[in-house]
Amino acid sequence: MRFCEVVRHLRAEDGCPWDRAQTHTSLKPYCIEEAAEVIGGINIWEATGDAENLKEELGDLMLQILLHAQIAEEEGLFTVREVMDGASEKMIRRHPHVFGKSMLSEQGEPVTDWDAIKKQEKAGKEWTEAYLPGALEEAEKLLERAKERKGIKK
């Protein structure tokens, strides 16, 4: 995939110093800002019928995802392919009515309800939900800083 190669080159020794210096932590503000700009792009499209800004902003958000995946690969955590494969498998599991592959309960019964599937997937990982409130608070602060950088008044 060309975009993955572009990101890999940006992070390479002969790439961009700014991109090479980024970490998961340093990219947090840009990730949340680009997500907000996608929402802006959707609003523009709804108001005007023009999807160009939405297309551009989706690319910028995708850049954030690919940068995080590239950094993770460099750190030996996972690859962009593993991210995409994991997301594909999750969507297949969560849509048995589309893909015909239901999960089985502990009793061997097919699980087809979205909430039940999600609950089964999260079994043993419930502790991760404790991080969400802090992440949302951090996202709010990052958005406030983004507004200040862009000169947006409250």
Automatic annotation (TrEMBL):
Name of the featured protein: Tetrapyrrole methylase
What PANTHER family does the database record attribute to this sequence? Answer: NUCLEOSIDE TRIPHOSPHATE PYROPHOSPHOHYDROLASE (PTHR30522)
> What region holds the NTP pyrophosphohydrolase MazG-like domain?
22-99
What would you give as a GO molecular function for this chain, any one? nucleoside triphosphate diphosphatase activity
Statement: the UniProt record of this protein carries the keyword Transferase:
yes
| This protein's UniProt keywords | Methyltransferase, Transferase
Q: Name one GO biological process term.
A: UTP catabolic process
Name the Gene3D superfamilies on file: MazG-like
InterPro entries per the UniProt record, alphabetical: MazG-like_dom, NTP-PPase_MazG-like_N, NTP_PyrPHydrolase_MazG
SUPFAM superfamilies with a match to the protein in the record: all-alpha NTP pyrophosphatases
Question: Coiled-coil ranges per the record?
Answer: none
